[in-house]
């Protein structure tokens, strides 16, 4: 067992390095990923060690980046594409949803496209417009795409390698506000299933389910609730498509209450599908309606207002209190 303490950013860098060491067909493409090492330094040092033919600085053309990755995947490569910021992915949306997601079905299973699209997402970094979006639901809605997001360094390390090994395209959302959060990583571990939810804190009164940047907020909320004698379970969903509904159901059958938390707007967000599905599955177990906490149905605000927009500790605890009041 080799346990190392590292930030999420460092874990992603080490994960990419391990994947490239293991398989010469793994390539990295994106704006400023080479000489600069990416705006968040996730690819720092990789071009120096693996060369410009495997770590490729591209023009500012997201549709071209993803389109080229699709062509490379058709020729047997495993491209890992970096979209510099979440709001920049939309020029590539057509390539992703009409080609990347559809090619396997269009070819009756004869063609595989093992492409990973890495997207730093979410707010709370004081950025300007188009730099703090949470568009995960737009991709989770598309059949043919896997959509995942780590919340800690260990998952960042292992989930990215699992995504690269997948023969299906994976949209890999990285919580940029958590890049510098540190945690222990066992680099010799046998990772669990990529799309399996994980209980991070046991509880008996209510389940808080979240993914990516909101997991830390939910853990803080559970700790605060414990000071008032409330036992809150925290479930890290890890995957938005497919969703581990069995894992959520098992937790809810124990706690009988569920609050789903994400940064994205509540309206038609991931929490909407989870609330509907768990209500269907657990109707006779639930002692309160499934509640959702998220962003407002409005464009992401200027940086000085984002603390009012983003769900924080108080809004999560308010949902906990409302659920327990039923």
TrEMBL record:
Gene3D superfamilies cross-referenced by the UniProt entry: 3.40.50.920, 3.40.50.970
CDD domains: TPP_PYR_E1-PDHc-beta_like
InterPro entries per UniProt: THDP-binding, Transketo_C/PFOR_II, Transketolase-like_Pyr-bd, Transketolase_C
Keywords noted in UniProt: Oxidoreductase, Thiamine pyrophosphate
Cofactor: thiamine diphosphate
Pfam families in UniProt: Transket_pyr (PF02779), Transketolase_C (PF02780)
Record's keyword annotation contains Amino-acid biosynthesis: no
Superkingdom, natural source: Bacteria
Domain Transketolase-like pyrimidine-binding span(s) in chain numbering: 6-181
Keyword Oxidoreductase recorded: yes
PANTHER family membership: PYRUVATE DEHYDROGENASE E1 COMPONENT BETA SUBUNIT, PYRUVATE DEHYDROGENASE E1 COMPONENT SUBUNIT BETA
Protein name: Alpha-ketoacid dehydrogenase subunit beta
């Amino acid at each position: 067992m080799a346990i190392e303490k590292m930030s999420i950013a460092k874990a992603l860098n080490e994960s990419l390095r391990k994947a490239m060491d293991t398989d010469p067909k793994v390539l990295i493409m994106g704006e400023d990923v080479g000489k600069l090492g990416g705006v968040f330094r996730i690819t720092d040092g990789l071009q120096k060690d693996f060369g410009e033919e495997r770590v490729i600085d591209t023009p500012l053309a997201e549709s071209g980046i993803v389109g080229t990755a699709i062509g490379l995947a058709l020729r047997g490569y495993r491209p890992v594409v970096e979209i510099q910021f979440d709001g920049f992915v939309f020029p590539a949306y057509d390539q992703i949803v009409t080609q990347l997601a559809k090619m396997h079905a269009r070819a009756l299973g004869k063609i595989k496209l093992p492409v990973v699209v890495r997207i730093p997402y979410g707010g709370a970094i004081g950025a300007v417009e188009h730099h703090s979006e949470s568009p995960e639901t737009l991709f989770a809605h598309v059949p043919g795409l896997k959509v995942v997001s780590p919340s800690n360094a260990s998952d960042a390390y292992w989930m990215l390698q699992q995504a690269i090994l997948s023969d299906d395209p994976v949209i890999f959302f990285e919580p940029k506000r958590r890049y510098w959060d540190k945690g222990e990583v066992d680099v010799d571990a046998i990772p669990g299933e990529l799309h399996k939810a994980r209980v991070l804190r046991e509880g008996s009164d209510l389940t808080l389910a979240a993914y990516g940047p909101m997991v830390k907020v939910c853990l803080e909320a559970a700790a605060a609730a414990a000071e008032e004698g409330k036992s809150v379970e925290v479930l890290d969903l890890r995957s938005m498509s497919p969703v581990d509904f069995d894992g959520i159901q098992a937790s809810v059958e124990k706690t009988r209450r569920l609050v789903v938390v994400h940064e994205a707007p509540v309206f038609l967000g991931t929490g909407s599908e989870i609330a509907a599905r768990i209500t269907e599955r657990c109707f006779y177990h639930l002692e309160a309606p499934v509640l959702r906490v998220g962003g407002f149905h409005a464009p992401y605000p200027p940086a000085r207002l984002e603390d009012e927009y983003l769900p924080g500790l108080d809004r999560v605890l308010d949902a906990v209190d409302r659920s327990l009041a039923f």
